[in-house]
Amino acid sequence: MAEHTSSSITIDASPADVMAVIADFARYPEWTGEVKEAEVLATDAEGRAEKVRLLLDAGAIKDDHTLAYTWKGADEVSWTLDKSQMLRQLDGSYRLAPLDGGRTEVTYQLTVDVKIPMLGMIKRKAEKVIIDRALAGLKKRVETHRP
Q1: How many Cβ atoms are within 10 Å of 60's Cβ, its own excluded?
Q2: Per residue in 26-52, is it b (16+ CB within 10 Å) or e — as a string?
Q3: pLDDT class for 127, splitting at 50, 70, 90?
Q4: How many Å apart are CA 105 and CA 49, to the nearest integer?
Q5: Which is it for strands 76-84 and 87-99: parallel, antiparallel or unpaired?
Q6: How confident is the model at residue 1, as a pLDDT?
Q7: Which residues pair with 13 in a beta bridge?
Q8: Assign residue 43 a region: left if phi > 0, alpha if psi is -120 to 50, beta otherwise?
């Protein structure tokens, strides 16, 4: 059974600036350690990604998969697994909350389930590594690449 893992970080930028980086899938290999390739396959009427193919290498979890994205307003995006070779489930979300001083709290939630047997402890550690690296990479990217 899949369990979710979540974590939050504060970024010294507006929610709009943070979401601009989250929505720029082509640049994911530049700041996420696990995503080696990213290709937008379909977009919605507003030009936001609806389906994205990602080549992931997160140590214990390596996969070429496609995610379906749902955008909720300007401050939340979630995704579900569309197809994968190794994963049974890869659901997650970024939720942004504005803070005083032009800062943003970013909460990342992730649920991963693999098709092959894997100890729950190893799977949770992989989820935590993915989340922590993604949040740290997002913070660094946003704070050093301001528009």
Answers
A1: 12
A2: eebeebbbbbeebebeeeeeeeebbbb
A3: low
A4: 23
A5: antiparallel
A6: 47
A7: none
A8: beta
Per-residue burial over 85-103, b if 16 or more Cβ lie within 10 Å, else e, is eebeebbbbbbbeeeeeee
What are the strands of the beta sheet with 4-11, ordered from one edge? Answer: 4-11, 103-114, 87-99, 76-84, 61-72, 49-58, 35-43
pLDDT higher than 60, residue 118? no
Alpha-carbon gap, residue 68 to 52, rounded angstroms: 7
Token output for 125:
């550690």
- At 116, list the tokens: 């092959």
Q: Pick the closest to residue 100 from 15, 23, 18, 19 (CA basis).
A: 15
Amino acid at 22: I
pTM to 2 decimals?
0.85
Angle, alpha carbons 107-113-117 (nearest 5°): 145
Which residue type sits at 121? M
Token pair recorded at residue 136: 């740290």
- Phi, psi dihedrals of residue 74, rounded to the nearest 5°: -95, -5
Structure tokens at 104: 């943003």
